[in-house]
Write a structure and sequence with these properties.
By secondary structure, chain A is an alpha+beta fold. Chain A contains seven helices and twelve strands. In chain A, the strands form four sheets. In chain A, strands 3-4-5-6 form a four-stranded antiparallel beta sheet, with no helix packed on it. In chain A, helix 3 runs antiparallel to helix 4. Chain A is elongated. The two termini of chain A are about 75 Å apart. The N terminus of chain A is likely disordered. Chain B folds into three domains: about 40 residues; about 90 residues, Cytochrome c-like domain (Cytochrome Bc1 Complex, Chain D, domain 2), CATH 1.10.760; about 90 residues, Orthogonal Bundle (Cytochrome Bc1 Complex, Chain D, domain 2), CATH 1.10.760.10. Chain B has a two-stranded antiparallel sheet with strand order 1-2. The termini of chain B are far apart. Classes of the chains: A alpha+beta, B mainly alpha. The interface between A and B is large, with 41 and 32 residues.
Amino acid sequence: MSGEGTSQPARTAADLDGLSDEELTHLGAGLDGVRILEREHRFAPGSKAERRAERLVAGCFVIAFLSVVGFIAVYLFYPWRFSLADQRYFLYTPLLGLTMGLALLAVGAGIVLWGKLLMPHETAVQDRHDGFSDETDRRTIAATFRDSLEMTGLARRSLLRRSLFLGSGALGLMAVVPLGGLVKNPWAKKELLGTPWKAGMRLVRLDGVAVRPEDLRPGGMETVFPDVPGGRHAPDGPVMLIRLYPDVTRRPRAGQADYSWGSYVAFSKICTHVGCPTSLYEQQTNKILCPCHQSQFDATRDAKPIFGPATRSLPMLPITVDSEGFFVARSDFREPIGPAFWERRNYD
Amino acid sequence: MTKPTAAEPADPSPGLLARARRRASSTIALTVALGAVGFGYAAIAPSSAAADQTPSADAQRGQQIYQTACITCHGRNLQGVPDRGPSLIGVGEAATYFQVATGRMPAAAQGSQIPAKPPQYTEEQVNQIAGYVQSVGGGPQVPSGNLRDGDMALGGELFRLNCAQCHNFAGKGGALSSGKSAPGLGTSTDQVIYAAMLSGPENMPVFGDNNITPAEKRAIVSYVQTLKETKDPGGNGVGRLGPVPESIVLWVAGIGALMFAVLWIGAKS
């Protein structure tokens, strides 16, 4: 910004024609209040050292080019498919990363070296005023903003102003309305309240085989699923069937005294904290652990939470054995499984 | 054990000859009968006694080791000693093999978890001890030979369903409650993995043969061993412990290197 009262001698086009680019640069800097004090080359132009620096920078760019060629070659020809016999595939991603990284690094290094070795070192000084800008600057700039607003006519033309708000407000709606699709009413289909489990439904393993009481040894655990189509992939279906040791005394929650069968108990595998699979069953301490946030449940007390962030017991599936000797559910869970939600009633 | 005795000499009194002869003949008959029973029993008894107590030289050597190393805590007849060690009746060869082959037994001290350490006995001795415990207490047995002939895809599915929650998705182990931990599977042999599933050591649930069938166990062994041999396709696996150590490496090493680069660029030449 040229200071107030700085007078520059008038120059004719002929004067300017006589100046070199470097002199013009100094002149321009001077007009902006910048004085270039010194400018020197690191190496003397044309010297041996300068040529070496030049070759170094050029070498970087050539390396970048070769790396890109290598990247394309790896992408096209390297064996990338998983194979037990030929384990070269494991180098595929690292090689891509290495060549791409080297190309980027070499371009960057070349530019940095160029700046450090070949560009002249320069010291420049710019005069700055103290405190505020002076009164004239401040007033003229404020007036410019007000004048611009006046020129748009927003203050006078109420039709334009209102239609602008209408149109741009609608743009905002585009962002907000799709969020509405994420909001679901849990009561409409009651999908948070029930699971596929029903009275008389068998407990099947991953391979679809129904579980019998003699299948588990004391201290054993089996993840079982509801015996319906798609039951093994139902997110709310997995149940831990645990056979406690015969000498373990179960202390049931209120209303769940008859939910077990013999020494077998069955709990939802979905943690009541944020829904991780809680299947770390410790057969000696009878604790069930959740791997995500270290919640612990006591299997002898109907999976009551005893440590960690979970605050509610794992829901218990009431089980019995049918006339053919297979485990069946006596009903669905009596409470919603998994993490809490706003409308969840308190069952404890 | 009854031994055939020599016939009793006949009564020497001549006046009682007829009665003596009759008595002698009945004595001989009784003696012969007793002798026959005795010989018969003696012919059968030694072999059945050997089957009950000393089935093989291996188990005998196993018994010798048991009586020096295990008897203090597990008792003379595997019945266990209160506050020292549990009963071994019914744990079988599988549990014995797992505990001794991984060096957990003989234990150095009591604790919530007996740590693995270099095994104290050779593979042969371990099998002798296991054979002895099996012969006395009975229980599940580990198959020998190559166990890596299972269906690997099935093994992977079962591993993720039953094992990964404690042993980590790559078999690196993980924390349990109160200072206990699930060990990594890095050095576990086929037999050790199989025996662990079968016997449920420490806090690991028991996966009996009706729970995870022998074919499924072999599938899991195949999967775990292949997983260990498989290289990491993304470069360094950073211990295969998941995103947390990976991001720590990226932030500390990667961003650290960038900081040095920035300092170097800004440094006065």
